[in-house]
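Kindly review these tokens for lecture notes.

. . .
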Amino acid sequence: MSDQLSLLPDTFETTPKFKVSGRIEGIFGTSDKDDFRTDPVDFLELTFEGIPGDRHAGFTRLSGGREPWYPRGTQMCNERQVSILSSEELIKIAALMQIEELKPEWIGANFLLSGIPDLTRVPARTRLVFESGLVVRVDGDNLPCRFAGATIAQNYPDREGLDLLFAQKARGLRGLVGYVEKPGVARSGEGVVAHIPEQWIYRRS
């Protein structure tokens, strides 16, 4: 009985839900099946499957190294339809890597946002409500990897080891992945509001 009581909701210290406003600084699509790099566009029309024609589109996807609890190639729900980056965090990554700039399209961005502090750290279940009516639900942060780092390195041929350096320095700054909860059209320059849910820390008992 004591174990059950320890998990009662009133034993958790919670942070109330709140909102944070930001802006779309850039929109990018679509990456093909062989390369996750994206190209700047004026707008994107998203459906329940994500960005039509994009390599990450679809209701489902195949598991990979991020899902060691499944055999590689297991079909699963696609919670990684879109990639969302922060202009402020890209500046930080570039400074940490000691490079002149880090363009969002190099690492597969679909949305580049500004004005939302510590974007990569917003919690799962956050809703990004765009001015147009599009809603993207955040699944979680996007872990940096060597493959993305390799595309950065292609733009700095005189520097060695940038692929590994990106994986080290971009942790906690690499942005978010999410899925379309309500379809719509997003345009560069429009506003976006992050609806941060109530939060708590679930500790080991």
